[in-house]
């Protein structure tokens, strides 16, 4: 992290993902002076952080974090080509954009780390998978990992082609869980609960169960069994949710496949 303080970090694109990570870093003690953000329409929140905004780049930043949409990459990245001299590490969070694509633009001397984070990084509960190109040293990976661990957990991948499935599970995954909360609350309303109460029950249940699944010694299947009294209410619900033709397993398999397929398409 000392390298980041002295050489600085550049953030290209500060939308939903970039700001989730920046929020985590600033709350974790990274000085706003060490961060230069390039974003054409900065939010009021970003303007209030005190970071260096749309101004000249530091001469030799330790890391450039690329957080623009995959479709914008061709427009946005060439402006940073001068930093592709091999001393700055590029860390990309863009879905689908391969390391080879970066090497085409930045040259193959550049250490490039492809990462897939998720938005719970905003509260320090992110999950990020990373993999580097051939120019990435262990020290580069360690620096990226330290930075990313400031906003949650980090796993290292063995192969870049695992990234499509990772994107479909943990990158997009928070959206599936938020949708579960929305639909669980709506189902409670359909059973006669007031909206506010149903939403409070749904949020606390999903949040509590998620944390319990992470912390408990038992696996999620056993935790599910522990809730399910024989002949009781949970068994009645699970008969619907575990139905082979229409239940969660089939739905999630289709949803995760659709996301992974889209990640492959974005690679072009
Ligand atoms: N959202 C998520 O949960 C996750 C997103 N990602 C990846 O993160 C990246 C960003 O996604 P997300 O944050 O959702 O998207 P956003 O659209 O919210 O953020 C992208 C930001 O980049 C800005 N931008 C556009 N063009 C340029 C440019 N030329 N130079 C600098 N900044 C530019 C956009 O400005 P403007 O809006 O004005 O165009 C916007 O603020 C994507 O590649 C996505 O795949 C990865 C994991 C999770
Ligand atoms: O929807 C997307 O394409 C991005 C990548 C993972 C989460 N959001």
TrEMBL record:
<comment type="function">
    <text>Catalyzes the reduction of 1-pyrroline-5-carboxylate (PCA) to L-proline.</text>
</comment>
<feature type="domain" description="Pyrroline-5-carboxylate reductase catalytic N-terminal">
    <location>
        <begin position="10"/>
        <end position="83"/>
    </location>
</feature>
<feature type="domain" description="Pyrroline-5-carboxylate reductase dimerisation">
    <location>
        <begin position="160"/>
        <end position="266"/>
    </location>
</feature>
<dbReference type="InterPro" id="IPR008927">
    <property type="entry name" value="6-PGluconate_DH-like_C_sf"/>
</dbReference>
<dbReference type="Pfam" id="PF14748">
    <property type="entry name" value="P5CR_dimer"/>
</dbReference>
<feature type="binding site">
    <location>
        <begin position="67"/>
        <end position="70"/>
    </location>
    <ligand>
        <name>NADP(+)</name>
    </ligand>
</feature>
<dbReference type="GO" id="GO:0005737">
    <property type="term" value="C:cytoplasm"/>
</dbReference>
<keyword id="KW-0028">Amino-acid biosynthesis</keyword>
<dbReference type="Pfam" id="PF03807">
    <property type="entry name" value="F420_oxidored"/>
</dbReference>
<keyword id="KW-0641">Proline biosynthesis</keyword>
<dbReference type="InterPro" id="IPR036291">
    <property type="entry name" value="NAD(P)-bd_dom_sf"/>
</dbReference>
<dbReference type="InterPro" id="IPR000304">
    <property type="entry name" value="Pyrroline-COOH_reductase"/>
</dbReference>
<dbReference type="InterPro" id="IPR028939">
    <property type="entry name" value="P5C_Rdtase_cat_N"/>
</dbReference>
<feature type="binding site">
    <location>
        <begin position="12"/>
        <end position="17"/>
    </location>
    <ligand>
        <name>NADP(+)</name>
    </ligand>
</feature>
<comment type="similarity">
    <text>Belongs to the pyrroline-5-carboxylate reductase family.</text>
</comment>
<comment type="pathway">
    <text>Amino-acid biosynthesis; L-proline biosynthesis; L-proline from L-glutamate 5-semialdehyde: step 1/1.</text>
</comment>
<keyword id="KW-0963">Cytoplasm</keyword>
<dbReference type="InterPro" id="IPR029036">
    <property type="entry name" value="P5CR_dimer"/>
</dbReference>
<keyword id="KW-0560">Oxidoreductase</keyword>
<dbReference type="GO" id="GO:0004735">
    <property type="term" value="F:pyrroline-5-carboxylate reductase activity"/>
</dbReference>
<dbReference type="GO" id="GO:0055129">
    <property type="term" value="P:L-proline biosynthetic process"/>
</dbReference>
<protein>
    <recommendedName>
        <fullName>Pyrroline-5-carboxylate reductase</fullName>
        <ecNumber>1.5.1.2</ecNumber>
    </recommendedName>
</protein>
<feature type="binding site">
    <location>
        <position position="54"/>
    </location>
    <ligand>
        <name>NADPH</name>
    </ligand>
</feature>
<keyword id="KW-0521">NADP</keyword>
